[in-house]
Specification:
Elements: H1 6-14, H2 18-29, H3 33-46, E1 54-60, H4 66-79, E2 84-90, H5 108-111, E3 116-122, H6 134-143, E4 148-152, E5 169-174, H7 179-184, H8 187-192, E6 195-198, H9 206-220, E7 233-236, H10 245-261, H11 264-290, H12 293-307, H13 313-323
Parallel strand pairs: 1-4, 1-5, 2-3, 2-4, 5-6, 6-7
Helix pairs in contact: 1-2, 1-3, 2-3, 2-6, 12-13
């Protein structure tokens, strides 16, 4: 079967075809030069239909229940008449890009709903908590008619800050009894959080969740507010009973409306696009350099020199850039 052209694929995405949506995301995630050119054409076609959703980044330490929370949170939004897309970034091998891709099995309510779209994407070893083309996947989902985009980060470390560069709001999910968890979460992520949610506030851990919420409220007093005059809220909820999930959405929606009406949201997205241009430029330059035959052979020689202790890493890197005519 002949692959669809970017024009026809974009048309099908705009018409709401789920098959086309999946194909379009596969295309933008591809790393081949031919597919990148097609992806750029696709994005140009759908760009006028993007930007109308609320983009929510969600992160948290392993075991906090991100996928279970998103399943409950997304189901509540679906019941309210919204269309929800979830881009779940999975940890993946740096050698072959393979990923666990288990999130979809923990979001069965969303995965089986026609008004929801769940897409696991391998991180391919890229740090920052998102996949290399998550930004473009967000645009494809918006063009496909989804008004709520949830980006679930890898959540395997403390480098999850890149999701803040592609989302409107950043939600930090934590566990009850998070004294150790609180110590392990870096200050930078706390400063980026628009809202902190203590999950698993049910049964015997209800009181502990409330205590943990109080600990986070105290800690946030020592952190610079993300938005001037806006205090980062801390909520508790249960993903299994859904208690408190609606309140989390109301807090997010209220803040989103406030940021939009003040003009801040437009400024934020403009800044994110400028940052995205820098990121894309870095990716293209890196690929361009790596494709040069002279660079490849020189890299092998210098890698051996570094491995044998005959040359420092910084000196070898500079020599490689000189080979590519990028530094003098």
């Amino acid at each position: 079967m002949t692959p669809a052209s970017p024009t026809s694929l974009s048309r099908d995405v705009l018409e709401g075809s789920r098959k086309a949506l999946a194909q379009a995301i596969t295309l933008v995630e591809s790393g081949t030069t031919a597919d990148r050119l097609k992806a750029e054409s696709l994005i140009e076609h759908i760009l006028p239909a993007t930007g109308k959703s609320i983009r929510i980044g969600i992160t948290g330490t392993p075991g906090v229940g991100k996928s279970t929370f998103i399943n409950a949170f997304g189901s509540m939004l679906l019941a309210a008449g919204r269309k929800v897309a979830v881009l779940a970034v999975d940890p993946s091998s740096t050698s072959n890009g393979g990923s666990i891709l288990g999130d979809k099995t923990r979001m069965t309510d969303l995965a089986n709903n026609p008004n929801a779209f769940v897409r696991p994407s391998p991180s391919r070893g890229v740090t920052g908590g998102i996949a290399p083309r998550t930004r473009e996947a967000v645009l494809v989902c918006e063009a496909g008619g989804f008004d709520t985009i949830i980006i679930e980060t890898v959540g395997v470390g403390q480098s999850e800050t890149a999701v803040a560069a592609i989302s409107d709001l950043f939600l930090l999910l934590v566990s009850p009894g998070g004294g150790d968890d609180l110590q392990g979460i870096k200050r930078g992520i706390m400063e980026l959080a628009d809202i902190v949610v203590v999950n698993k506030a049910d049964g015997p851990t209800t009181d502990l969740a409330e205590q943990t919420a109080g600990d986070y409220r105290t800690a946030l007093h020592m952190v610079r507010p993300k938005h001037p005059g806006v205090t980062t809220e801390v909520h508790t909820c249960s993903s299994t009973t859904t208690q408190g999930v609606l309140e989390v959405w109301e807090a997010l929606n209220t803040l989103h409306s406030r940021l939009r009406d003040s003009g801040y949201l437009g400024q934020l997205r403009a800044t994110q696009l400028k940052q995205g241009l820098t990121t894309e430029l870095q990716l293209l330059l890196f690929d361009q350099v790596l494709s040069q035959p002279a660079f490849v052979s020189e890299r092998e020689r210098l890698e051996q020199a570094v491995a044998n202790g005959r040359m420092s890493v910084s000196a070898a890197a500079r020599a490689l850039l000189q080979t590519a005519n990028l530094v003098r």
